[in-house]
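Hi, here's the filled form for the chain we discussed.

Project: internal
Contact: R.S.
Residues: 156
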Amino acid sequence: MSVAFRRESDEEHLEPKFEIPIPPGPNLVTARGLRLTREKVEALEAVVTADMAEEDVKKLRRELRYWRTRLATAQVQPVPNEEVVTFGTCVTYRLNGQTRTVTIVGDDEADPNDGRISFSSPLARAMIDAEVGEQLDFGSNGQSVEILAIQAVEES
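And the returned structure, exactly as it came back:
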């Protein structure tokens, strides 16, 4: 049968719906990150879907699948020592003459505006295993990061 006589459905032109992408690598979390993930799952499970549009229910279920997966795969990391930069440490550093402080956390907990960066971010990867006083190469312009202070973060 010729394509000209074929009836096209409305569904044929819609964008496909994909799952929310899971960040690659292990799902490392702080105690705070685990708590926030649990709270997110509980909040999504508590949503009443009776009066929601079908498309909104599908979005909610997709988000709930993501957060349940993240909860099931969460690997809570122990509180670090303050000798080297590692997951869960609060690091004060100098870059381009500016002093900043960040906490290295899991992918879902990261919020750069709040001073929390993911352990998989380029800056965190550059700083991991560094000690106070170290100068680390960072970026392609010959920039360096100087580690000024390391502090363990105990959050629950």
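Let me know if anything looks off before we file it.
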